[in-house]
Amino acid sequence: MIRILCLMTALAGAAGLSQFPEFSQQYMQRLAGQVDELSRDLKQLDAMALDLRMGREERLEQMENTPTFAADAAFWREKIARHARLGAHLDSLRSATPMARLTMPQRFADTALLQSVWADFTPAFPLSQAGAMSGGVGFLTGWAGAWAALAAVLALIKAPFRRLRRQSGQRVKRVDPGERRDPVLERPSPIAQPHDRRPRLAGVQR
């Protein structure tokens, strides 16, 4: 039964991770689109600042010091931060191999982008080498994870019984102070007999 559960978990892990290369590829395409869109928006900001003979930071500071445009400045700063964050993720994913991307979950941290990719993603049979290798990693990970989980559950189940066995053993070994003990018997020492100095009579044996 335990092997069947481990096998089912391993097959589920293989099926899931075998789709990761294709999913990560689609995620990278959406990510590149987001970065390009943000780059166009920031170019517009730079153009507006240039029309006022200012740099980007000078224009943002002017907007922040103006109550009417303070909200717009916060909006642009959020876009700048998002552009830098997503651009760094995209560069790291592009420079990594499909298998190396398995170890970079922090680069798939954009929740909105993940949801949009997952909504349009259609699982398919992995025909690429990366898909097969990912499936193998998923199988081994699922098998090991199932064994570890079952071992932890069995340890939790056995823990109370081990505790009771240990306590009962200690109870048997413990000696009650008021318990009556038998006295220790010692071997008696021989008593020397006094020497009889009376003269012996002939024919009398003692």
TrEMBL record:
<keyword id="KW-0472">Membrane</keyword>
<keyword id="KW-0812">Transmembrane</keyword>
<protein>
    <recommendedName>
        <fullName>DUF2937 family protein</fullName>
    </recommendedName>
</protein>
<feature type="compositionally biased region" description="Basic and acidic residues">
    <location>
        <begin position="173"/>
        <end position="185"/>
    </location>
</feature>
<keyword id="KW-1133">Transmembrane helix</keyword>
<feature type="region of interest" description="Disordered">
    <location>
        <begin position="167"/>
        <end position="206"/>
    </location>
</feature>
<feature type="transmembrane region" description="Helical">
    <location>
        <begin position="136"/>
        <end position="157"/>
    </location>
</feature>
<dbReference type="InterPro" id="IPR022584">
    <property type="entry name" value="DUF2937"/>
</dbReference>
<dbReference type="Pfam" id="PF11157">
    <property type="entry name" value="DUF2937"/>
</dbReference>
